[in-house]
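Quick question: what would this complex look like in 3D?
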Amino acid sequence: MSGRPTRENWSSRLGVILAVAGSAVGLGNFLRFPGQAAQYGGGAFMVAYVVSFLIIGLPIAWAEWALGRRAGQKGFNSCPGILFYITRHPAGKFIGVIGVIIPVVVYMYYVCIEAWCLGYAVNFLKGGTSQFEDPAKAGAFFGNFVGMGGDGSALKGFGMDIAWPFLIVVFILNFVLIYRGLSKGIELFCKYAMPALVVIALVVLVRVLTLGTPVPAHPENSVINGLGYMWNPQKTFLQDLGPDGKVKLDDKGHAVEQEVVDRATIAAAAPGALRQVTIWEQLQRRQLWLAAAGQIFFSLSVGFGVIITYASYLKRNDDVVLSGLAACSANEFCEVGLGGLITLPAGVAFLGVAGVAGQGTFGLGFNVLPVVFHSMPGGAVFGFLFFFLLFLAAVTSSLSMLQPGIAFLEESLGVGRKVSVTLLGLITLMGCGFVMNFSAGLKALDTIDFWIGTFLMYVLATIQIIIFSWILGVDKGLAEANRGAAFKIPGIFRFFMMYLTPIFLIVVFLSWLTFDVLGLGGGELSSQIKDLFVEWNPVSWMSVGLIAIVGTAFLILSHRSEAFKTLPAETTGDEPDPLP
Amino acid sequence: MTTSGWIIMSLSVCTVTVLFVWCIWRVLTLPGEEQHMHGFEFQTPDEKSDRDPN
């Protein structure tokens, strides 16, 4: 038997599900997903999205739940401890450090975005939203609010139009909740925040779907056309024709065109000006599959180090199969059922397809939507509700990013929560200060997001599914997952977990690396690579340096820790539950 | 919005909604889904571990 029983545990099954779902539901559900789905054609995107959910999302989620619970019975709650115990090899404790670096470093910039959401909610609540009259004004407000103009500008001044006071509020809130512990802090908050989030989203959804055609001068701007822009499987583009009747090309040789959804424009188009892209053509695009897999991946928080940590606080016979599916389904409901119906229809209804097309997550959330809420009747209230909803989603996610770090510090240093919270608070405060200070063009945020929030997540997820299927053994892993389960994992997932999931992940990762990062095979060199090796951007290098410092410190801690020097005996399946 | 757009939207939204409702219903109706109140006791983990080294 182990001499390190788990000291904390969840209060209820629903509580842990809401905590995991809260970790997964974030800004991406309401801002990133709609943009991605619309860009690649709703129907085609959803096909790739569902396939990715079944092949990547669900199998990795179940694997993380099972691995975490298994190691948790021996008192391992941090990713290094969990992988050390599961792999039964010292390499596990070093590989597992990735599962601490990811959430801790992502927290450093995520909490800044969380502060933006709170700041926008408060700005709508106080009324007088003239700063959001048009996209140009909204863009200028956002630039000033987050300090895009220059490094250090985000920390100057004080008021409602600057982000740092809100950052202090959310930072303190997060650490108060995390100090209160797993069940009294994270679980309690998620139990109220998640239902509140869904109710608020439903209220905003009803408002958006009843907007109709809010700008009489532009009858083509309507909620129905917004839904069409998001969900129509066949995309129709109106191309600019030159005097010779041929399609105009820009300086890169691409057709000058704009997507249209309203039938009047399509009917009035000149012969040869329309280009149709069918669902089958969309499905043949590599980028579509990359986008769908990436969206599933980041949306479900798999490969993040969070699910595996949360699951380690479960009891030996607690269900993980239904819980894993329930957490995933809650995330999908928020993403597809709510996010997919709110954001773009609202944007198109006021600004038209041209106003929302090509906007990234931040552009859609902090430039387009504030204008939309400013323009709609009762906009101050609905704007407040929407940004408060984003704020709640962000808090439940950021809390989950702290727990892996807390568990790691407690385990590796053998300290209590007061010390671990203080240490993690200092580390993340310095990181947040770095991100806030180097705010010009959001360079620090983008760089960290790329290397941690994209690159390392793929790596960790791939490692985790290989450990589950090939090192622990898929049959042993499935038996572990199925113990105490409300229903068994369907047999087809054995094949998925052994072959399809790792191969799919590796192919997607290599494809992304080849075409989108290194720019080979007709792809474009990633701006992050350019910043580091072509333009030698000092902020990019400092951001990578920050990651390296945190990573090295955690590796040293993991190496020196007494907790990761001896392996407890493996669970055979017959031991009594060590927890009360 | 085209007919196929309506179909895809309805299918997608209905599927995730039904799955979510079914999961929550199963979770809430499983035996043993009672809240262990010790999780909400007025005590921080530090205080708990100070008293009980296990």
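Answer marked as accepted. The mean pLDDT of chain A is 89.
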